[in-house]
Amino acid sequence: MRALLFSLMFATLFITLPSTDAKAQTVADILKDTWNGYTEFEASYTTSGKGFIYQTVTFSVNSFNNISGTMKATVTIDGSKYVCYSTVSGKVYEDVHEVYFYAAINDGADVLPYGLQWCEASGTLTMYTDEEKNGYYILNGNLKDACTGEAIELTLSNY
Question: How many whole angstroms separate alpha carbon 141 and alpha carbon 124?
Fold first, then answer.
């Protein structure tokens, strides 16, 4: 059975924030936003030979730096869309600029075609300041598919 990696992840984010900026945001402040990502993947079993995944992640961070949130992954295969919803939980570690979070498929998922299945993933994402869009950030890294162990690059942005 083929596995489809999408944005369910268990990740650590390493973040370097500018120390000279009087208005420098904390890791928790930056995460309190909506993050979007788009991935194109090869899919020889489809008519077009390609599939597309669009991810939306929304985080909330409480005063104890605990994270909660939602994640939505929309996969487009042969012009049809399939959606998976999940919940996100975790912890922000400001002192080392890390964020630990876990996303679980428990809010529903469409059945995928071609024997594909939704899979959780784990990995490390690094936060970068977006040099082209002042005040915005990019999260980038590789995630490991829990179904197959394969890695895929994931990029999310907060714009």
Answer: 6
**Cα 109 from chain centroid?**
16
Q: Could you tell me the two tokens for 36? A: 């979007």
What is the rounded CA–CA span in Å between residue 1 and residue 24?
47
Q: How far from each other are the two terminal CA atoms of the chain, in whole angstroms?
A: 35
C-alpha pair distances (Å), 58 with each of 32, 46, 51, 95, 133: 7, 30, 24, 23, 20
Q: Render pLDDT for 91-118 as a digit per residue (tens, 0 to 9).
A: 777 776 677 777 777 768 999 998 888 8
Residue 12 CA to residue 102 CA, distance in Å, equals 10
